[in-house]
Amino acid sequence: MRGLAAITALGVTVGLVSGVVFAAGAVGPNGMRMGTMPKHLPKPGKPIAYEAARPLIKYSDSAGMLVGGRTHKTVEFLGHDIRIVMVAVEPGSADQTFEIHKLVDPQVEVPVGAKITVTLLNMDYGAGMIHGVVIGRAAPPYKTVVPVPVAGQIAEIPLTMPRTAQSVRKSKYFVATTTVNAPRKPGYYYYFCQMPDHAKSGMYGKFVVVP
Ligand SMILES: [Cu+2]
Q1: 171 CB contacts (<8 Å, ≥6 apart)?
Q2: What DSSP character marks residue 130?
C-alpha cells in the first residue's frame, strides 16, 4: 500500500504546489552557447521550500514499479492517470542526470494512451545548472544542441532554474509540470534535457510506450 499512499501524497502535493508551478513559454536552446547562461530564460515561478519539495522527492523515489530488479534500471508506471516526478540531479548524484525511483536515468515505461503528468524538480545547484525535459523520438548520440521540438515529441518541460542556495535544507526549488497523453501506439522514445550539452553528456533515458 506504500505506492497508493505515495500517490495520495502526491495528489495533495500537486494541489499545494500548483500555484507555484511555472509553465512559462518554452525557450528553445537554439543559438545558446555551451557553458553560457541562456539570454532568455523562462520567467521563473515562485520557488518552493525544501519542506514542500520533500514530498515530491519521496514520491519520485518510490512511484512506479521496478521491473527486473535495480540493475535492470526500468520503472513501469501503470494505469490511465500517471504521475512521474523526475528529479534533475538529486544531491549526491552525478552531474547531468535524472533520478526516478532512486535510479539514475532509468528506462521509463508507460501504457499506450495514458494521461501522463510529468513534473521536473530541479535540485541542482550552480551557475548554468538549468534543466528541462523533452520526450520524443530523438535518440542518442546527441549533439551539443538538440533543436526542439524533436520528431515524435510527446512532451516538453521548459528549462527550470537550479536551487537557490548551497544548503539543501535552506534552499528553494523550482518545479515545472506538464500533462500530456501517451501515444496510442506502442513505441520507443527518449526523455532528455534540452539544456545545451546536457543530453550529449548523458542526461537522457529511454521512454517506452507499452501495449
Ligand atoms: Cu540538464
Answers
A1: 50, 125, 163, 164, 165
A2: -
Cα(196) to ligand 1 centroid in Å equals 8
Residues within 5 Å of ion ligand 1 by Cβ?
131, 193, 195, 198, 203
Tell me, in angstroms, the distance from the centre of ligand 1 to residue 24's CA.
17
Cut 0.90: pTM above it: no
pLDDT at 139 over 70: yes
Question: Domains of the chain by range and CATH?
Answer: 2-210 (2.60.40.420)
| C-alpha 58 – ligand 1 centre gap (Å) | 21
